[in-house]
Structure formats: structure tokens, C-alpha cells
């Protein structure tokens, strides 16, 4: 049984650092007017001003006077937003206006307003069957990764409703709160084809029911003109919820793959984690573990603490925290403000008399270890650990990867993460009146303890080995990052190994693995799968209710020499064109 104090720690752990992409409140969807998109409904001047005042008041009440914004109403971004509420406007325009204001104020990827996920799934139309992902290169590019009647896998978008992908990406940069561009390139796929984003981009046809696309197909510079209709998602409420955690073991490559799509610390996670490491321990053939965080947008860092107990028993470097206190923080997390918790913090030398108090990593480790429990009796894993990352890897998943890299526990493979090394998290949530919006407000500053002092100016946690997903990978249904690792572990029987690193000049997908992009009604390519000696996936978990799309992974191995090195540095051929952290103090607030 958890004690009162350990329950407090559990709450703290579950907050570090909740993803802004998951909502827990259910907002009743308003009835859709005949012939009118849900996101296009008009908000009156009074409705807008009430919603704006609510957001500003919650921001101020929750401790933002500590960052120097004593009077939000005098900030240019707020004045501009206030002026825009002087006339009736659409829900989608108001939403993007709020996010533009929040980005200008804080440049914080966690702090944003977002349409409630349940409302969006039930009432917001999308481009039927289309799956668009960002490619990187000299200019932003969009690729389709689902087979539809109008578009094929691998089609590159030349124009959407008369706008180029570069135009659309620039609009995202202006209005989506972010810390760097890797995050923007990894926004949820559903957003780019949803009616509110399409309306904001100004790409809908006059009927507000379709979008004209110009596509380049088969690598040939010829345009295919298609018109994609908007349609509501076909949901009947019976779609099973795939588990957020699973694993597979491959004897032929001596590799075990642990896939974690959300940082949820609960009984299901602990059962799967124990079974995974027990399987690895019993299978003496397995000498490589792959931790797949490419589709993980965060949650509780406790999942990392529990995982790493099978890697080391020694103390390791974590991160420091600056925690902002407020009445609202105590209202939403009362266990963290009660006398017992405060007494523990004071016993560790923490001065909580200030509005913002410091919690060093050494004390945080005590909090986390209290919940993770006693270390397993299994032998420590002494093989090679790889961590797969992408721009989707965010918040606690970003910290998970960073802690592994900075303590030299393993090698990161993939593309850069979606956060800057130091960022804000630990979210408060508010339902915004008169809207379908949830307001996510951050309270905790996380500061990674750098081992080399080189964090200044970094815009992400960069992988040790850059392996992007190319258009060729999408066409072939190939999981580029996982395949890279598996090739390293496949015994060489055909002579010298050849390099599997894709050319860094080739455009790549900056988000999740290509083989996760598969339409429900797809007629598309089917990837070859190598034999799996053991697979564990928890289905329809009673512990986890959020909706997730299924992941289809392709394991395709080539012969190469076994790779045991901990690090393999490469030179980078591209840099993010992201907005640099602001130097006026607004991006280093406490």
C-alpha cells in the first residue's frame, strides 16, 4: 500500500512532464450547424473576451509574476490579441490567435491551447484517408504515406490549395508554440489534414468540403492534380485501444525491442517491463536492447527510473527542477502542497519560501526511487543499448533519451528530439469557456545537468547516429532506424559489411518511423517481417484508455558486422531553421 507521502511522490512523478497532446477533460461537443464546419462557428465579441480574460487570469494567478510579466495587458502580443477580439470571429481563427500570443510571450512547446481531442475526433472533418508528414531539406516538403483513391504512398505535395509546403510551414512557425522546428515537423499527423488547420491555412475550396492538391509522383517532376474531400472520421466507439507498451525479441539478430509510445507509470507498464527484462535475462542469445521512443510525446519520468534499474544500480546524473508555486498548483496537485510533503522537502534542505524553489537532481532521485521501488533481483543488462528518437520524442521521453545519452548508458539513433535541452513542463489544465479548448500551463523548469557544458545554444537532444526516414523508406515500407540497428547485429556471412547510413543530403521525415503511417483502408505496400521469437503486446488495457493508431513495423535485416561501440559521432549536414531561444528573458523564466 502506498503511504500518503509516496502518493505525493507518485503525483509529482506523473506530472513530469505531461504531454500537451493528451486531454483528460471531456468537453461536450456543440451541435454542428447544417453545412458549417464545426471549427468555423462564430464566437461573439463577449465570448472571445471572456475566454481571453480567463487565460490571462489563470496565467497570472499561477505564478507568472515570477518571470517578470507583472502586467500581461501591456505586452504587445496581448494587445494585438485583445484588438482582434473587437469583432466576431471563427473558433479556428480565435484558437490560432491565442496560440500566436502564447508563443510570442513564452516560446514554450508545452504551453498552448488545444482543441479537446474527443471533440475533434467526433466533430472535426479531415481530408479523407490522407496522411501527410514533413520531409526535411533546404525547403520544407510534405509526403503522403497512405494509399487512397486519389493519392499514393510516396506522393510529394507540390501545392495544397494554392499554397506551397514552405508557405504552410511558415504559418505553423508563426502560430504553434514551439522551441525549435523539429517539434513542428513532428506535429500529430491528424492536425495537418484537419478542418481547423486547413481553414487557417486558407486552402479549402469555396464549398469548404475539399482541398485541391498538386502531387509529384514516382520521383518524376510531373504534377498529378487531385481533389481530396473532407469527411468525418468513421468511428463506432468499438475500436480497440492498442497498448502504449510492448516488446519483441529477435533471436536471429540477438536483439530485444522495447516499444514505449507514452510515458505512463502504472501496473501495466511495470508488468510488461518485468516480463521484458526477465525474457532478456533468460535468453542468453540477446546482447542488444533497443528502446523505441519515436512515437512518445511524454508523460511520467518514472518510467525511465524503473527501466534504468535494469541497467545500473549506481547513482547517475538526472536534471534539476525549478518549481513554480501557486494556489492553482496546490488546487490541482494538493498532495504536493500538504505539510508532510513540505516537511520532507525541508528535511532535504529545500527552501520553499520563495514563489519558485529549486529541487536538485539528487533530491529528485529520492522522490523517483520511492515510487519505482526496490531494484529487481535480475542480473544487470551488460549488453548494448540503443534508443530510437525522433521529433515526436518530447517532454519526459526527451528526458529519458537525454539521461541515457549523458550517462553513457546507450547510443541514440534517429533524428533530434522535440524539446530544447532545458524546457518547461509539469502542466496545469483548464477548460476555456465558450470554446472547445483546453489551456495547458506549465509550472516546472527542467534543467539537464550537462557533463560537458555544451548545452548553450543547443536546440534539441541530438542522436549519436543520424538516421532519417527518406522517401525511399516510405515507398519500401522500411523502418530505417530499427533496420539500421538490426543490420549492425546481423552476423556477417556475405563478406565485408556495407554502410547503411542514408545520404544526409536526402530529404527525410523528421517524425516517427515510416512504417507507422498506414491508412485503415490502405491498399498499400506490405512490408516483409522477419521471424520474431517472442512478442508481448498488452491489448485493450484497463489501465489506459486513450486512443492510439496501430503501429506496423518492418524488420528487414542485411548482413553486417556486429556493432558494439557505445558512441558513433557523425557530422551533421543540416541544421534546424528554428527560432532561437529568446534573449530577452522570456524564454528563461523562473
Q: What strand line-up does the widest sheet have? A: 4-9-8-7-6-5-21-20
Q: What is the global morphology?
A: globular
Low-confidence stretches: 1-11, 21-34, 493-507, 514-534, 536-590
Strand content: 15-25%
Q: With helices defined by DSSP (H or I, 4 residues minimum), what is the helix count?
A: 17
User: Helix content range of the residues, please?
Assistant: 25-40%
Determine the mean pLDDT: 78
Number of extended strands: 22
- Biggest beta sheet summary: 8 strands, antiparallel
Q: Specify Rg, calculated over alpha carbons.
A: 24 Å
Distance between the termini: 36 Å
Structural class: alpha+beta
Description:
This protein is α+β, with helices and mostly antiparallel strands and 590 residues long. It contains 17 helices and 22 strands. The chain has helices at 4-15, 45-61, 76-84, 91-106, 117-123, 165-175, 181-185, 189-192, 195-201, 267-282, 302-308, 327-332, 339-347, 361-372, 396-406, 471-476, 480-489; strands at residues 42-43, 89-90, 112-115, 126-127, 132-136, 141-144, 156-160, 210-216, 223-231, 242-250, 255-260, 288-292, 319-324, 356-359, 384-389, 411-414, 423-431, 437-448, 465-466, 469-470, 508-509, 534-539. The protein has an eight-stranded antiparallel beta sheet. Helix 1 (4-15) packs across helix 14, helix 3 packs antiparallel against helix 4 and helix 11 crosses helix 14. It is globular.
Amino acid at each position: 500500500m502506498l503511504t500518503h507521502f509516496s502518493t505525493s511522490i507518485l503525483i509529482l512523478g506523473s506530472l513530469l512532464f505531461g504531454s500537451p497532446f493528451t486531454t483528460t477533460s471531456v468537453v461536450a461537443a456543440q451541435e454542428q450547424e447544417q453545412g458549417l464546419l464545426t471549427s468555423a462557428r462564430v464566437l461573439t465579441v463577449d465570448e472571445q473576451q471572456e475566454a481571453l480574460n480567463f487565460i490571462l487570469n489563470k496565467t497570472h494567478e499561477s505564478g507568472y509574476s515570477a518571470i517578470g510579466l507583472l502586467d500581461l495587458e501591456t505586452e504587445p502580443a496581448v494587445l494585438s490579441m485583445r484588438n482582434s477580439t473587437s469583432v466576431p470571429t471563427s473558433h479556428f481563427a480565435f484558437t490560432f490567435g491565442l496560440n500566436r500570443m502564447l508563443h510570442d510571450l513564452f516560446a514554450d512547446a508545452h504551453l498552448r491551447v488545444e482543441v479537446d481531442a474527443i471533440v475533434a475526433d467526433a466533430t472535426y472533418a479531415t481530408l479523407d484517408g490522407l496522411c501527410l508528414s514533413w520531409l526535411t531539406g533546404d525547403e520544407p516538403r510534405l509526403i503522403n504515406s497512405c494509399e487512397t483513391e486519389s493519392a499514393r504512398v510516396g506522393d510529394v505535395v507540390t501545392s495544397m490549395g494554392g499554397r506551397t509546403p514552405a508557405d504552410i510551414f511558415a504559418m505553423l512557425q508563426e502560430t504553434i508554440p514551439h522551441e525549435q522546428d523539429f517539434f513542428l515537423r513532428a506535429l500529430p499527423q491528424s492536425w495537418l489534414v484537419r478542418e481547423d488547420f486547413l481553414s487557417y491555412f486558407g486552402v479549402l475550396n469555396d464549398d469548404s468540403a475539399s482541398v485541391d492538391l498538386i502531387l509529384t509522383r514516382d520521383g518524376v517532376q510531373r504534377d498529378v492534380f487531385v481533389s481530396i474531400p473532407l469527411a468525418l472520421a468513421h468511428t463506432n466507439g468499438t475500436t480497440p485501444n492498442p497498448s502504449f507498451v510492448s516488446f519483441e525479441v529477435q533471436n536471429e539478430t540477438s536483439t530485444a525491442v522495447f516499444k514505449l509510445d507514452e510515458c505512463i507509470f502504472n501496473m501495466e507498464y511495470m508488468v510488461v517491463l518485468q516480463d521484458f527484462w526477465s525474457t532478456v535475462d533468460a535468453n542468453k542469445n540477446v546482447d542488444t536492447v533497443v528502446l523505441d521512443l519515436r512515437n512518445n510525446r511524454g508523460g511520467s519520468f518514472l518510467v525511465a527510473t524503473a527501466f534504468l534499474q535494469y541497467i545500473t544500480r549506481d547513482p547517475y546524473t538526472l536534471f534539476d527542477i525549478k518549481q513554480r508555486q501557486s494556489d492553482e498548483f496546490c488546487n490541482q496537485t494538493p498532495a504536493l502542497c500538504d505539510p508532510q510533503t513540505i516537511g520532507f522537502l525541508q528535511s532535504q534542505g529545500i527552501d520553499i519560501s520563495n514563489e519558485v524553489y529549486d529541487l536538485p537532481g539528487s533530491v529528485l532521485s529520492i522522490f523517483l526511487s520511492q515510487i519505482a521501488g526496490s531494484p529487481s533481483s535480475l542480473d544487470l543488462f551488460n549488453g548494448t543499448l540503443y534508443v530510437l528518437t525522433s521529433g515526436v520524442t518530447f517532454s519526459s521521453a526527451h528526458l529519458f533519451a537525454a539521461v541515457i545519452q549523458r550517462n553513457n548508458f546507450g547510443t541514440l539513433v534517429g533524428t533530434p528530439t522535440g524539446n530544447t535541452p532545458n524546457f518547461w513542463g509539469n502542466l496545469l489544465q483548464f477548460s476555456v469557456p465558450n470554446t472547445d479548448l483546453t489551456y495547458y500551463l506549465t509550472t516546472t523548469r527542467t534543467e539537464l545537468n550537462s557533463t560537458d557544458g555544451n548545452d548553450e545554444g543547443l536546440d534539441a537532444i541530438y542522436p549519436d547516429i543520424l538516421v532519417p526516414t527518406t522517401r525511399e523508406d516510405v515507398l519500401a515500407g522500411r523502418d530505417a532506424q530499427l533496420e539500421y540497428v538490426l543490420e549492425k547485429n546481423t552476423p556477417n556471412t556475405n563478406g565485408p559489411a556495407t554502410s547503411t547510413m542514408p545520404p544526409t543530403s536526402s530529404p527525410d521525415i523528421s517524425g516517427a518511423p515510416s512504417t507507422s503511417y498506414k491508412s485503415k483502408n490502405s491498399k498499400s505496400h506490405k512490408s516483409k517481417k522477419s521471424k520474431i521469437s517472442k512478442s508481448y503486446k498488452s491489448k485493450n488495457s484497463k489501465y489506459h484508455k486513450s486512443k492510439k493508431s496501430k503501429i506496423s513495423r518492418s524488420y528487414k535485416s542485411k548482413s553486417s558486422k556486429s556493432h558494439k561501440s557505445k558512441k558513433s559521432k557523425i557530422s551533421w549536414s543540416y541544421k534546424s531553421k528554428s527560432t532561437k531561444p529568446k534573449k530577452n528573458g522570456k524564454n528563461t523564466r523562473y
